[in-house]
Amino acid sequence: MYPLKFAPLYKEKIWGGRRLETKLNKELLEGKIGESWEIAAHEKGSSKIINGRLAGKTLIEAIQEEKEKILGNTAKKEYYNKFPLLIKILDANDKLSVQVHPDDNYANKHENGELGKTEMWYIIDAQEDAQLVYGVKADIDKEEFANSIKDGRLDENLIKIKVERGDVIFIPSGTVHTIEGGILLAEIQQNSDTTYRVYDWNRVGKDGNERDLHIDKALDVISFGEEAKKKVQGLEIKKEGYIRKILVACPYFITETLDIEEVYADKTNGSRFYILMALEGAAKISYESGSINLSTGETTLLPATLGRYKIEGNCKLIRSYIQKPIKLKEELEAAGYSLDDIAKIEGL
């Protein structure tokens, strides 16, 4: 097998902009482009491979052909028909709706078998004083939240935080959130497109009508009474030539950054695939039978049976994969990391 590269799928959004083009050199269609689906296998869009012998096939077609050669021998059976992750880059030029996502159980029951949506954001770029909505104040209950929507005072019950380049935000299902404009970010999430809008700034869509809200469903799934969440700290592991920083380890994905000064060498051992996105700089990924180049904003999937590979170049990558969080915790404990160290990883 070899590293798979994909043609991005661009999504026009009412809140989108052009920074995917100006910041990441992507060739965009006309309009307000809000999302680039980098690796996707969803009913609303499926990535096509653009390199090697699998070129022209969708990700799911390739998986059905190559099976565990891509996914790995520890992959769940359902992954063969429903790839577990959706990898995006978002250009939030304007405000997104105030929104929340359901968990797996609720989505399965109410959204025709869809997955829930837990996600994380890595801030690639942000204008000065950019901020997010990140949760509901701890003393606000369901009744008060509903009343504040009706009375037009929702804003007073929301938690807001300022963000800057390099910040990481973990958003479990049930967390009310939004981006208040001026932010370019990478999004790692469950393979779901289910969003319940709570408030949308009275905007209208292309049809001239206000966009739908989903307040009743949102009230069903919001996690009330939680303490304010913090930005992800992460566990930094310094090695010669690179720094690995483990950010999030939840049941749906593990995400970390690789800050490479010279060379990073590793291997896939047949158990799982890895997804790499270049956040800064450019990388050359060499493997047994060849190499590929990865520029800023590009994403690749390393199949489980790729074997040994080497990443060269002064670059920063975000790496995502699926592993039971308890296994990662055990590995870190065995390597001598304390529970306080491990607690810096969100989701563990």
TrEMBL record:
MF-aspect GO terms: mannose-6-phosphate isomerase activity; zinc ion binding
Organism in which the protein naturally occurs: Orenia marismortui
Gene3D superfamilies: Jelly Rolls
Domain of life, source organism: Bacteria
Residues annotated as domain Phosphomannose isomerase type I catalytic: 5-110
Keywords: Isomerase, Metal-binding, Zinc
Key word Zinc present: yes
GO terms for biological process, alphabetical: carbohydrate metabolic process
Required co-factors: Zn(2+)
Keyword Zinc listed: yes
Note describing how the cofactor binds: Binds 1 zinc ion per subunit.
A Pfam family of this chain: PMI_typeI_cat
Active-site residues, record numbering mapped to chain: 197
Residues that, per the record, bind Zn(2+): 101, 119, 177
Protein name (Swiss-Prot/TrEMBL): Phosphohexomutase
Residue span, Mannose-6-phosphate isomerase cupin domain: 247-322
